[in-house]
Amino acid sequence: MKDKDFRIHIKIDGRAYPLNINRVDEERYRKAAKIVNETITEFRKMFQGNDQQDIMAMTAFQVALNFTKEQERHDYSQFIDDIKDLNDDISDFLIEKEQK
């Protein structure tokens, strides 16, 4: 069997979802399912009486929010721009110093 033909069943809120995945990604998929299930449980406790669609919508929103926060933590573009500016300043300084 090829790695990409590995079949697992992920349970989300008690429902099983069969997935064909790459074998090396199994732990990532199971961890993601665990996070979703834990988030559903938290929202059920916080919003007792809300219907299932509200709980799922809030869960999806929370997971997406955490994803965007993680992306921002790894955004080094401003840092790279600052280093380029600093490099330009140093180059300009050295050019001026050579001209004196």
TrEMBL record:
<keyword id="KW-0131">Cell cycle</keyword>
<dbReference type="GO" id="GO:0051301">
    <property type="term" value="P:cell division"/>
</dbReference>
<protein>
    <submittedName>
        <fullName>Cell division protein ZapA</fullName>
    </submittedName>
</protein>
<keyword id="KW-0132">Cell division</keyword>
<dbReference type="InterPro" id="IPR036192">
    <property type="entry name" value="Cell_div_ZapA-like_sf"/>
</dbReference>
<dbReference type="Pfam" id="PF05164">
    <property type="entry name" value="ZapA"/>
</dbReference>
<dbReference type="InterPro" id="IPR007838">
    <property type="entry name" value="Cell_div_ZapA-like"/>
</dbReference>
